[in-house]
């Protein structure tokens, strides 16, 4: 996992679920000062635009302190049902890249479980 990522969730799910990455460090603070940033999460070479949020907290965490940064997107349908790598790309308007291919971890696609809960 990249040193700017504190963690992500969920580790597995189906297309259409909310995917969130928790970011940390001074690098993220310097990036967010840039204007017109574009955040992208990439699932096996399939890029999805995502939103960036700063969340306030009163509870300090190791390596993060009180700063909470989250990027989130909806997991895309990419036609595979096996584990795939997830990376983060950060671009500035005009094509300049601040971060490209920052490895976050592995996401495992599963079948949609909502039907199973109705049957049980």
What does it look like?
The chain is mostly beta strands and 120 residues long. Helix content is 11%, strand content 51%. It is built from two helices and eight strands. The chain has helices at residues 26-32, 114-119; strands at 5-9, 12-13, 18-23, 37-43, 46-55, 68-74, 83-92, 96-109. Strands 1-3-6-5-4-7-8-2 form an eight-stranded mixed sheet, with helices on one face. The termini are far apart.
Question: What key attributes describe this structure?
Answer:
single chain, 120 residues, mainly beta, Immunoglobulin-like, 8-stranded mixed β-sheet, 51% strand
Strand-helix topology:
Layout: E1 5-9, E2 12-13, E3 18-23, H1 26-32, E4 37-43, E5 46-55, E6 68-74, E7 83-92, E8 96-109, H2 114-119
Parallel strand pairs: 2-8
Antiparallel strand pairs: 1-3, 3-6, 4-5, 4-7, 5-6, 7-8
Concise synopsis of the structure shown:
This protein is mostly beta strands and 120 residues long.
Give the topology string: H per helix, E per strand. Answer: EEEHEEEEEH
- Reading off the top of the CATH hierarchy, the class is best stated as Mainly Beta
Return Rg in Å: 15 Å
- CA(first)-CA(last) distance: 37 Å
Largest sheet: 8 strands, mixed
Mean pLDDT: 84
Provide a count of the helices: 2
> What sort of overall outline do the alpha carbons produce when their principal axes are compared?
globular
The largest sheet has its strands arranged as: 1-3-6-5-4-7-8-2
Percent helix range: 10-25%
Number of strands: 8
Total separate domains: 1
Q: In the CATH scheme, what's the topology name?
A: Immunoglobulin-like
